[in-house]
Specification:
2 domains; two-stranded antiparallel ribbon; two-stranded antiparallel sheet; 4 strands
Length: about 450
């Protein structure tokens, strides 16, 4: 990154970008402070002692990873943003099966506002279900509450619901007023918060040589994740003849461009969606009905075969699903036709849409398989005994690494767009940050 620090200094010369970064950092600070505020009436010292005695493992540790440790601290932000993610998944699934939701999706901005409002209400309902189960299993179950009367239950559930809504509001404000996708950014911040501690524990328990080998392997996995997120399939487009100064270009010399179709158009959303659904067994086993269900108990082990097999398949399915709702070949074909542009050798209109859809299907399959493999890689690393630190193994690919890579690259792209709008060089001056808008064909993105 040539002159990287010079480009960093350019950020503070861009007034709008400086304000957006300030808002983003301020929201993140509020989120991190809230993750250390313990629910009133909970003895945090006793809870930490009981958790240390019980040991680690299971989906509870994964939830704690996504919330920056708030789950195991019985923080007011213990449930994190996951209820909102679950509500978003349900609304998107309803958009496929329910005509009323489909109509709202087609109504543009007004429909989007209605869907957001229903998502918020559904978030409240999901949190009202999850909060009592969390308090009973992860707080009272460890004897961390001395007086668990009716008033404490009411106040604790109310605090968890309101705190989840506050996190949701912070994420929406970051997306609207700050830089990056707020929801994904808050999840990433929670994950990064636990990385230094896991790295230090691994360094103290491993030999220096083996630790360096682990770091080298980790860098290779990070490189593979970056390559997956940035991989493109360029579909060449022939632009119409251009007219400059009253004269036409010679026949056949129209501008050449391309449509950048990403191999992983869905980004990290399939990981987040699949992970949110994989938390369902954790909540089901908190009830007496499913408490002793052997199959659900097996799904609580995120290093187990059944958990990773189902997780793998769900990521592949969600990748296709999310790509289908975010990338519209018909819209691309219409945009090309309106601008008198075409793909060489393909007729405009429906043949172009079919051609783009075929390419998208072909590149989504290897992209989804690679995404799913990286997601289950931590379980493979831990099962093979390459590391005994389960917390550190989570960063060898998996949900945590993919979210971090995807969110960081997306945020960098937004920052680059602001810098380039003021004629500053981008952060990657010596190279090229893929995903940066390059196609002059309006309305076509990968």
């Amino acid at each position: 990154m040539k002159n990287f620090f010079t480009q960093i200094s350019n950020i503070w010369k861009h007034e709008e970008l400086r304000q957006k970064l300030g808002i983003t950092l301020g929201m993140i600070l509020v989120y991190r402070i809230g993750s250390f505020i313990v629910i009133p009436g909970v003895n945090s010292d006793k809870l930490a002692e009981q958790l240390g005695t019980a040991g680690s493992g299971g989906l509870g540790d994964l939830l704690s990873l996504f919330t920056g440790g708030a789950f195991n601290r019985a923080s007011i932000f213990a449930l994190g943003i996951m209820p909102y993610i679950s509500a978003s998944i349900i609304m998107q699934l309803l958009g496929i099966a329910v005509p009323a939701v489909q109509k709202m999706q087609a109504d543009g901005e007004s429909g989007r506002k209605k869907i957001n409002q229903y998502t918020r209400l559904l978030t409240i309902a999901i949190t009202l279900v999850q909060a009592p189960g969390y308090l009973q299993t992860s707080v009272i179950g460890y004897g961390a509450v001395e007086d668990d009367g009716t008033f404490w239950w009411f106040s604790a559930v109310l605090i968890l619901v309101c705190s989840t809504l506050l996190i949701m509001w912070l994420g929406e404000r970051i997306t609207e007023k700050g830089v990056g996708n707020g929801i994904s950014l808050l999840i990433m911040i929670g994950i990064i918060a636990t990385f230094p501690q896991s790295l230090l524990q691994e360094a103290t328990t491993s030999t220096p040589f083996f630790f360096l080998v682990e770091i080298a392997f980790l860098l290779i996995v990070i490189g593979a994740s970056v390559a997956l997120v940035q991989a493109l399939r360029k579909v060449h487009v022939q632009m119409a003849k251009m007219q400059t100064g009253g004269s036409h270009l010679p026949q056949g010399e129209g501008a050449r461009s391309y449509i950048p179709l990403k191999v992983n158009s869905a980004g990290v959303m399939p990981i987040i969606f699949a992970q949110a659904i994989m938390f369902i067994p954790l909540y089901l086993t908190q009830s007496e009905t499913f408490e002793n269900n052997s199959f659900l108990t097996q799904l609580l082990d995120f290093n187990g075969l059944w958990y990773n097999l189902i997780f793998f398949l769900m990521i592949v399915i969600f990748t296709y699903f999310y790509t289908a709702i975010t990338v519209n070949p018909n819209q691309m074909a219409d945009d090309l036709k309106r601008q008198n542009s075409f793909i060489p050798g393909v007729k405009p209109g429906k043949p172009t849409a079919d051609f783009l859809e075929k390419i998208l299907s072909n590149i989504t399959l290897p992209g989804s398989l690679m995404l799913a493999f990286i997601a289950i890689l931590p379980a493979i690393v831990y099962s093979l005994g390459l590391t005994e630190n389960q917390g550190f193994s989570m960063f060898f690919g998996g949900t945590s690494l993919l979210i971090m890579v995807g969110v960081v690259l997306d945020t960098l792209q937004q920052i680059e767009s602001y810098l380039l709008s003021r004629h500053y060089d981008g952060l990657m001056k010596s190279g090229k940050l893929r995903g940066r808008p390059q196609s002059p064909v309006g309305g076509i993105t990968g």
